[in-house]
Give the backbone structure.
Amino acid sequence: MEVKGCIRHKFCKNLPKCCFLFLAVFVFISILGYLDLLKLKYEEISTINLQGATTDPQKHHGFCTFQPLSSTDALEERLILDSIAWPETPLLPAPLPLNQTSDPAHSTFTILPGKREGGQWHVGDQLEVMIQIYDFQGQAKKSGGDVLIARLHNKTLGAGQPEVKESIGKSGVSGYYYQGVWRALGGIKVRQFNSPSAVNQCLKGKIVHLYGDSTIRQWFEYLNAFLPDVKEFNLYSFKQVGPFMMLDNANKFLVTYRCHGPPISFRNVPISELRYIANEIDGVTGGDNTVIVFTVGAHFNSFPIELYIRRLQSIRRAVVHLLDRAPGTLVVIRTPNLRALTLKMALTNSDWFSLQQDKVLRAIFKGLNVCLVDALEMTLAHHMPHNIHPPRPIIKNMIDVLLSYVCPQKGS
């Protein structure tokens, strides 16, 4: 009895260890079985994807892969990179002390006397400004390399004009504000669409597709708020991502919005809604009643410019195909604009990057039958502070430019 009791006692004492060992073996076997199941599912999915895959080399499928560049695109990329390269400057110590960099507070600008008698300026004259740049120690800078962005404005007249100076070059000015209205200096004559009825009449019978980031989503939101008769369909979409759609049944026009594919900084994006603009344009029938509007830039600002170039090349191919099959389609591009550079934002963004994007976009779409809304200069020329999401008065002017392309004034 004592022996049996001792055996029972010893068995009961080791029971937890035995149970733990049994559970460990069971879990291990279960994991092996689950891995086999995953492998089987992967093989099934791979077979399905392979069978359903397209052989179109132009179509994007993966978010983390690059299409190989053709020799023509590679040459274009090299020429563009050379054109936007930072100009050579004298060698500086590395790392350069912060107090030896340019300081706006110490720097000055002076409007030089006019060339007329008495140094006067008359309306229509070109102002000459001398800018002297100093570092944080008050020492004059001895080398270039600064991007200077300026605007001349008068709040009383609601007037403003942009100016950009980049070491050795200057951008042309596409327009100016007067009485709060953007007036283009070339191309289309900008009309005013101040009432919902004017917008409705312009968009009557049209299909308008907006693609891009939140800066183009602002246009959708503006039209949705401004037009009382449109009905927005609840597609249960994420606010930042879309897709969104609104319809005016009486005037028979449709407006849609969808965000572009990666890179994007939205936190919550369903994988099924990650769409490349090029792929979306490829799916558009097009025609005289179709308007395609897109913008790409804000989410690319902190990435290498090569990524931006290749994305635009891809979109250009889709635009060329669209205009070949439906020449009457109107394609409008909203250029990137400047943003407020807080300390946090300045770590990964700069006005220089935005200017590079502007040059790249213009170079890639040069010669194509597309229209531009110059968001960079329209935001720069306005007296309101820089903001990646321009305020309503600027958005209204951008919509006027867009609708002026859709419904140009006769004889313009």
